[in-house]
Design brief:
The chain is mainly α. It has 12 helices and 12 strands. It is elongated, with a radius of gyration of 38 Å.
């Protein structure tokens, strides 16, 4: 994940952090390069393996096969064999970068859940009702397709949009997350992904064919059998085996996506058997389906990752409305203005309990032998109240972490005990009431 650098500037008055860009505060699992100009998936390292699997065999081909054929054919034809392989490889790498390094169609997540239709905030006292729940499935008139609510992005996903658990984003026309390119395949990069797979298939066929041409040239020039010619060029044999396996892999993937394009489906929809029992509402005919993929402009990104944003430190902003998603167990309540933090609430509760205990220590002891408070003690307490010491906070002059009473109170208590002994009342009731 991208490590967010510390902000350069901050406003000391408002505490607002400046010069923070969207890619630095991105909540998804993406990795950004060149200050947000390229966005990759969290498994972008797998793309390095893909690049190696493309560049390494082409390099071997140019050194051990194409360079040898330059002497056997005429000058321009021999050079063209190597030039085609190099140009084709560069073209494939550009398609790989366009597939893996661009926004696949991410929908920016909401900062708070949407309000249900027909909800009146003033009717429930300013959005303090935490019991309202958003429907998980919402029927809309978009080709008769029901859209679902995303708990993570807090939005109703458009049709054909799904949440990628790897990138942690909702992607338009989500096809699948390809580990070989380290990115989701969606609305904005599906065309480049198909061209990448298709071009890789053509390059594999090209290398496979030229290797056999080179073996044939060795057979004709030296008049030997095919097995002896293959022994003379082990690099060609290795490339033939490698490209044969590659054609089965990328070639099969190309045929599968040709079928998906012709029927206007995505891999996600096809694997979930979404249109097995009913007609596909997006199918427009084979020709129109191919035009939709290859003959339409790529929609602009909904995210400007380099745009500056402002972020408030401390408590998060108010999440107005107490709406919850269907899969959440608790409601999201509003944060009251001026309300203390969570630990402040706990502290105030402890102070309230201490106030009750301190009151029981000296003011409300009815079962310990003192039915009424001595006028002298009451006078002392009243003087403390007038001096600004609240009985709930003062705890009668106790020390931090101790429940010992102040000397004045103990002196007054002993005098009361003397009076009680004179009247036949034991003073042990006072000491027994202390915790």
């Amino acid at each position: 994940m991208y490590v967010v650098p510390p902000p350069k500037h901050s406003d000391p008055i408002s505490g607002r952090i400046n010069d923070l860009r969207i890619y630095q505060s991105w909540k998804g699992s993406n990795i950004f390069f060149l200050q947000g100009r390229f966005i990759f998936g969290p498994d972008v390292r797998s793309m390095l393996l893909t690049i190696f699997l493309i560049v390494a065999p082409v390099t071997i081909f140019c050194i051990f096969v194409a360079r040898k054929l330059m002497d056997d054919f005429s000058h321009h034809l021999g050079i063209s064999i190597m030039v085609v392989a190099v140009v084709f490889t560069i073209y494939i790498l550009v398609l790989l970068l366009l597939t893996s390094g661009r926004d696949p169609g991410i929908i920016l997540r909401n900062s708070h859940p949407p309000e249900p239709e027909g909800y009146d905030r003033s009717a429930d006292g300013g959005g303090q009702n935490p019991q309202l729940r958003l429907p998980h499935i919402k029927e809309v008139l978009v080709n008769g397709i029901a859209v679902k609510y995303c708990d993570t992005c807090m939005l109703y996903r458009p049709p054909r949009c799904s949440h990628c658990s790897i990138c942690n984003n909702c992607v338009e026309r989500f096809d699948y997350h390809c580990p070989w390119v380290g990115q989701c395949i969606g609305l904005r990069n599906y065309r480049f992904f198909f061209m990448f797979v298709f071009s890789t298939t053509l390059l594999s066929i090209y290398v496979f064919s030229i290797c056999w041409v080179y073996i044939k040239r060795i057979m004709d020039s030296e008049e030997i059998t095919i097995w002896k010619a293959m022994i003379r060029t082990p690099a060609s044999i290795a490339l033939i085996v490698y490209t044969f396996i590659s054609v089965w892999f990328v070639g099969g993937l190309t045929i599968f996506h040709l079928y998906l394009i012709g029927t206007n489906q995505t891999t996600y929809e096809n694997f979930r058997f979404r249109y097995d029992r009913r007609a596909n509402p997006y199918h427009k005919g084979v020709v129109q389906n191919f035009k939709e993929i290859f003959c339409t402009s790529v929609p602009p990104s909904k995210n400007n990752f380099r745009a500056k944003v402002s972020r408030e430190p401390g408590l998060p902003p108010s999440l107005g409305g107490g709406f919850v998603s269907p899969n959440m167990g608790k409601a999201v309540e509003d944060i009251e203005i001026g309300r203390k933090a969570v630990w402040g609430d706990v502290g105030s509760g402890l102070d309230h309990c201490e106030g009750q205990l301190s009151s029981n220590d000296g003011l409300n002891i009815k079962n310990g032998g003192l039915g009424e408070i001595s006028p002298e003690i009451r006078t002392t307490v009243d003087e403390r109240d007038r001096a600004g010491m609240h009985p709930r906070r003062s705890s009668w002059g106790r020390k931090s972490g101790s429940w010992e009473m102040s000397p004045e109170v103990l002196a007054l208590a002993s005098r009361v005990g003397e009076q009680n002994r004179t009247g036949g009342t034991s003073s042990s009731s006072l000491t027994s009431s202390r915790p």
